[in-house]
Amino acid sequence: MNKPFISICIPAYKKVEGLKRLLDSINIQTFTDYEIIVTDDTPDESVKEFIAKYNSSVALNYSQNIPSAGTPQNFNIGMKKAQGEWIKIMHDDDWFSHSNVLQKFADAARATSCSFVFSACNNIYTGTNKEVHEYFTGWKKDMLDDNPINLLYLNVIGHPTVTMHRKDDSIMYDLRFRWVADVDFYIRYFKEHPGYEYIPEMLINIGTDDSQVSGSLYKNPKVEIPEYLSLLAKFPSDLLLKHEYVFHCVWNLV
Fold first, then answer.
1. Is the whole-model pTM more than 0.70?
2. Cβ(99)–Cβ(150) under 8 Å?
């Protein structure tokens, strides 16, 4: 059996309605050379029962983590199960904006020599339906092009769901982190696979609400400060004196 081009890895946790919305958006994709891997951290059977009944256009590779693995280990479990050439992580509260999203990502991946692709996105706030469009332009592009380490100051790439990267089992998410897990992953990935391809279209809808893990971590000094200090400890001690954006990262912590 041929391996799929894209592995869509979904780290699920409780949100059956969100998961249905995501799977529905996958089902309508015009590009079909993909697999779906759902790794479930839900402590009850709600997601498992939903998956058993869901009519997917492709077979769902489902597994439940007992006990729950937590974030970001649940990401790693799905990535290790992936058989595709490229990995597309999708949170269960995010979804594809239209039926040609996977085709856009696949075309970009095939047209570039880089191993990392990401797109613009649309943040949609639950309850108010407020939308915030995020594009990667101007100073954001300049900052990333200057040095991926500048992501320490500001994650100009965004959520993992806006990205797709070539499978590399030697690079996984660091289990010590929750708030800076994506920044740490991006920096390490770019070190091994320099360069990126950007798609200037809002291909991903980001569902945002107060129940998300990130909501309890944002500007929480008991989380952000120790995580950033642990992340900075991976680099030479004089890093903040050599890089302007790293200096500002430390200044913001203070």
1. yes
2. no
